[in-house]
Amino acid sequence: MPTPQFVDRLNEQIGSELAAQQQYIAVAVWYDAQTLPRLATFFYAQAVEERNHAMMMAQYLLDTGADAQIPAVAAPETAFEDIVAPIALALDQERRVSDQIAALAGVARDAGDYQSEQFIQWFLKEQVEEVATMSALVDVAERCRGGTMQLEEYVAREQSGREAEDPTAPPAAGGAL
Questions:
Q1: CATH superfamily membership of 4-158
Q2: DSSP code of 75?
Q3: pLDDT tens digits, 128-162
Q4: Residue 16: how many other CB atoms lie within 10 Å
Q5: Which of 50, 85, 88, 111 has its CA 20 to 30 A from that of 36?
């Protein structure tokens, strides 16, 4: 069974993942309202990915006999000043989640909880990818400030179908969507 401190922190992380899901839905809806369907689709997909991360964490807790909690989340930001702001917010969010995941790995390691440390390794790898994707998207969005459709074209070209199923991913409670 995971250490109590790891369980507490992982339950908090479930809340962070669900908050990220809500934020990505809000971003997707904002892009949809701006008639930017490629950006909207990208962020709707990101929302599903964050939901699945939360469910992977819940499944780990269930599998180990620990108490899985689904905490409430704060309302997401829904108004943005321009096309770059939502992506910059997403990058900040991914950096924050990366720090949280690294701290979780530290909690497991410090407690000698090797199963939990092994479980969290996949999320460390995933966060490198998430930060890199959002960093690149911010860079392109900054260059496309005057040409919104160029950003849409970039997302259509570079981000469509980018997410193949990862056979090393932990199982998600309820199955991954």
A1: Ferritin, core subunit, four-helix bundle (1.20.1260.10)
A2: P
A3: 999 999 999 999 999 998 889 999 999 999 887 65
A4: 20
A5: 50
